[in-house]
């Protein structure tokens, strides 16, 4: 079982390496050199255009990559600055340069980059063949290139489907700027999945990714739950530990002793460390109970026995007694 798990993990890692993210996953997907009635730019102009496609299953930012239509860049002796001078860079500063999985980006030929990210300085002459290439950000590594034949107005030269090696000329009603090259109305989702992933690699990676993600989430959840329960149990046990109880009682005794010391310093040794208010409350309670004749009914009740004194005798009565 362990060997099978290791084998599946190896297959998963190798699959990730095959479909790994990188500039090589960006392809020139469709080109139109003679545009008279196809798409228009934001200024209402019909410029020639090319479409880039991300054939990977993850995102990639194409900013800083280069487009060129000048074959001279293939000369090995050229320096990087010389190459860049023959190219048009895809500028940054626009979120559309971040191509997510299976997404597309339209770029216009013979325009001014100051007008926006989609506008390139490289030109495409109408009615003539065109070589167009995509270079990485170092202006040295050739990522993709294609020679477009001379095209009639509003025809495009495109891959039969995104990322395919075969190219075809599309009629005006088949042109698909900004979307998948292969479109079949009424195609079911299952048929589309079989067409786009005939060997099942994509669905296998997706399924394994979901399973591993769920397992990871479950591990984190139960790990945190275990830590919480262990701390809760430890706190519960700490309450029952004898040293803890002793420490608590010692603290209470210390507070009580401190209070008594404070009372003695204030009222003297005769007070015994007991507040006057306590004496007054005890005496009042005892008098009340004596008055209600309940002082002997219950046990553990403090009472005061009657003791006759002469504190209320008048002065003349005192003289008589004498």
What does this structure look like?
By secondary structure, this protein is α+β, with helices and mostly antiparallel strands. The protein has seven helices and eleven strands. It has helices at 2-18, 80-85, 189-196, 201-240, 242-267, 276-291, 315-321, and strands at residues 26-32, 49-54, 60-61, 66-68, 88-89, 98-99, 104-108, 130-135, 142-148, 156-159, 167-170. A five-stranded antiparallel sheet has the order 7-2-1-10-11, with no helix packed on it. The longest helix is centred in the C-terminal third of the chain and has 40 residues, at 201-240. Mean pLDDT is 80; it is low at 9-21.
How are the secondary structure elements laid out?
Blueprint (H helix, E strand, L loop, with lengths): L1 H17 L7 E7 L16 E6 L5 E2 L4 E3 L11 H6 L2 E2 L8 E2 L4 E5 L21 E6 L6 E7 L7 E4 L7 E4 L18 H8 L4 H40 L1 H26 L8 H16 L23 H7 L1
Antiparallel strand pairs: 1-2, 1-10, 2-7, 3-6, 4-5, 4-8, 8-9, 10-11
Structural class based on helices, strands and sheet pairing:
alpha+beta
Poorly predicted runs? 9-21
Gross geometry: elongated
Tell me the distance between the termini: 116 Å
Per DSSP, the total helix count is 7
Strand content: 5-15%
Please write the string of helix (H) and strand (E) elements. HEEEEHEEEEEEEHHHHH
Helix content estimate? 25-40%
Q: Biggest sheet, in brief? A: 5 strands, antiparallel
């Amino acid at each position: 079982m362990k060997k099978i798990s290791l084998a599946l993990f190896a297959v998963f890692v190798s699959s990730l390496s095959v479909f790994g993210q990188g500039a090589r996953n960006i392809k020139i997907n469709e080109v139109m050199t003679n545009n008279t009635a196809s798409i228009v730019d934001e200024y209402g102009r019909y410029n020639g255009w090319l479409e880039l496609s991300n054939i990977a299953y993850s995102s990639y930012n194409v900013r800083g990559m280069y487009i060129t239509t000048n074959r001279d860049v293939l000369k090995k002796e050229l320096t990087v600055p010389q190459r860049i001078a023959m190219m048009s860079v895809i500028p940054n500063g626009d979120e559309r340069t971040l191509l997510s999985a299976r997404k597309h980006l339209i770029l216009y030929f013979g325009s001014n980059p100051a007008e926006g990210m989609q506008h390139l300085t490289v030109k495409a002459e109408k009615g003539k063949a065109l070589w167009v290439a995509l270079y990485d950000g170092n202006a040295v590594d050739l990522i993709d290139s294609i020679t477009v034949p001379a095209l009639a107005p509003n025809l495009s030269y495109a891959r039969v489907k995104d990322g395919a090696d075969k190219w075809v000329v599309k009629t005006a009603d088949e042109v698909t700027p900004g979307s998948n090259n292969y479109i079949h109305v009424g195609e079911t989702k299952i048929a589309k999945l079989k067409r786009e992933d005939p060997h099942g690699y994509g669905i296998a990676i997706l399924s394994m990714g979901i399973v591993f993600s769920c397992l990871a989430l479950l591990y984190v959840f139960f790990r945190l739950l275990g830590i919480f329960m262990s701390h809760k149990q430890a706190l519960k046990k700490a309450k029952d530990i004898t040293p803890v109880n002793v420490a608590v009682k010692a603290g209470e005794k210390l507070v009580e002793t401190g209070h008594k010391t404070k009372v003695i310093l204030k009222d003297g040794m005769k007070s015994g460390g007991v507040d006057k208010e306590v004496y007054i409350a005890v005496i009042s309670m005892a008098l009340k109970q004596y008055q209600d004749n309940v002082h002997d009914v219950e046990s553990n009740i403090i009472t005061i026995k009657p003791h006759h004194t002469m504190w209320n005798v008048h002065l003349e009565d005192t003289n008589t007694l004498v």
